[in-house]
Amino acid sequence: MPPDDPLALARPHGDAAPTAAPEIGAEQRHLVDSRAALARMRERTASMSALGGDGVSNEYLKFTLWKRMKALEDDPDIPLFFGRLDYADSAPVVTESMGLPGERFYIGRRHVIDEAGDPLVVDWRAPVSRPFYRASKTDPMGLRLRRRFGFQHGVVTAYEDEALTDATPGAASGHSAIVEAEIERPRMGPMRDIVATIQPEQDDIVRADLETSVCVQGAPGTGKTAVGLHRAAYLLYAHRDQLRRQGVLVIGPNASFLRYIADVLPALGEIDARQTTVEELARRVPVRTTDPPEVSRIKGDARMGTVIGRAVWSHLSTAVEGLVVPLGARRWRVPAYEADEIVAELQARDIRYGAGRAMLPQRLAHAILVKMELSGDSPDDRVQNSVARSRPVKQYADALWPAVDPRRIVMRLLGDPDFLLFCSSDVLNDGERAAMSWARPAKGPGSAPWSVHDAVLVDEAADVVERTPSLGHIVLDEAQDLSAMMLRLVGRQCSTGSATVLGDLAQATTPWAVGAWDEALAHLGQPAARLEELTLGFRVPGDVIAYAARLLPTIAPALTPPTSVRRAQGELQLIPSPEPLRAAGAAVQAALDGGEGSVGVIVPDAWVDRAAVAMGGAGVEFTVLGEEGDLDARVDVVPASLAKGLEFDHVVLVEPAAIAAAEPDELVGLRRLYVCLTRAVTSLAITHAEPVPVPAFGAGVDHAESSATALLSNRPA
């Protein structure tokens, strides 16, 4: 908790001069004034009444005010600002990203104004804030000085100045101890934002235009997930009206990951973005089973898009007789051949099945009106609409272009070998058809043995029938693990919008993964997306990432090896033990005794129950990731399959060989191990009875020897 006197904690950072303490006091007063102004902004919002013209408008206004109240919530432990920009007295104003000469701006998570409307804090996403992330000695962007702040419990305790011109003597430049301390600060619970530490190469991605889709290939610890979330926050700020209408969606790999990142956007004042998983997007049917890897590969192959399309359109019928419509004393007839021509013409338009079905009655009615006009009548549009709605036309159209149920189409494909052969004769081979077919036909959608890959096929069929509405922007994380059909499903969510695609090919751990970004982006419908590669690691310590990178020549030889920019190399231990779980308990206790921070105990999936017993026996209070209350305790037991995307200050990795061996093939197993090795922020302890399947230094790995060579070998210390 903060002390009674907020300035009691105020200390100049590092070697700052003794006169810095009064300066910190002035900055703390600005923080207090800003918090008071934010409270007034929230009070004004709370005092507003929703007076709409009708009940619906009234509820909409109430919801809008509620969202505004949520956006103005203040957490006293989170500083309102983290930086300050001082413009030079003679700074030229050349772009909207620059302030006026002599101006000063405080940069923070949200915009705060005083009672006169002047800014006390400027939102980090505003154009005038960009020099905080981009200005340098070579391009000061009009700045005289950039200041960063250090905080403790939301109170200013330090500052660090960086002179960007020669006009400010004595100020530091280059390395920022405050930035380094924030990056390395121990973290508990869900993921935090990185708004105070965004680096220039990350900022370029965050501020990319809404019309631009971006694919980020990011090594572990490079902040790719945070960059994607901050880009969503930036776009919601820069294009609020458009994206409020069209929507923003964040797609993660699993529910635990979504809980981990859930607080980032709300902390930045954004609550309009929805978060989900691919499995949830495909929930048109209840998933009850899991396919074997070889079956998953077939169902996830892009060729299934052709098979599904044929299955849907195969329901069109050829006319066996003409259409006869009685109108008054006369009967009008459309010959069978002409009806078939109408159907063929509609199908050739490349429209959705459902759209063609809706248009067919009108086209048949129009054919009758043409015949009426040729006979001398003068019918108008009302007559055509009446004919299109008549029973004979509707029944005839239904026979030619029947209604279909996407679930039953996929059921028939998987349960009827003859139908599957008809739809895939030149697409799949006999072995593939036999592998993906159900052992017995299902009686109905509710009882069918659906897998997640089946659910994706159902969604594909549903899109052939009716177009999936497009959102304005999606953020897709861990995209390297998706099949071609899953990527098509996600792509339908942004068919007229843009996407931020995040992933690391070295961490692809599914048998059905596509394997290359250009191919993945093509399936996603975003082939022109800009590809960015992040290789500078800000979170994973140097010794840890160097050790894990020994796997790269095997698992992803084309990727640039990551580099840690942290001065602290971290702690890495290999602990051979005939009882690795017992050794893990001791390692966890040592991490808890050694200081602050979260601890992740990563184990083979099949070892979770045994690990829970071992942690209990060691007297460690813990939760199991994936169960209720996970991420709330300081220690989490983490199944290896759920570790992706998460980070812990201290990681205890149990039996790496068993983690790798649990996967269907060696390459996937080593990639899974690479994921698990790169979850640590401060220390990594590996307890093992079997040899660790990481190459010894020099085995085809061109990375510099770390300072912990003895610890990094596979030989017992």
Which terms summarize this structure?
717 residues; alpha/beta; six-stranded mixed β-sheet; six-stranded parallel β-sheet; 29 helices; 22 strands; disordered N terminus
Describe the structure.
This protein is α/β, with parallel strands linked by helices and 717 residues long. It contains 29 helices and 22 strands. The strands form five sheets. Strands 3-4-2-1-5-6 form a six-stranded mixed beta sheet, sandwiched between helices. Strands 9-8-12-13-7-14 form a six-stranded parallel beta sheet. Strand 3 (112-113) and strand 4 (119-123) form a beta hairpin.
Shape: globular
The description of the largest β-sheet is: 6 strands, mixed
The average pLDDT is 88
Strand content: 15-25%
Taking pLDDT < 50 over at least 5 consecutive residues as the criterion, the unreliable ranges are 1-19, 167-173, 698-717
Biggest sheet: strand arrangement: 3-4-2-1-5-6
Distance from N terminus to C terminus (CA atoms, Å) equals: 43 Å
Instruction: Output the number of helix runs.
Output: 29
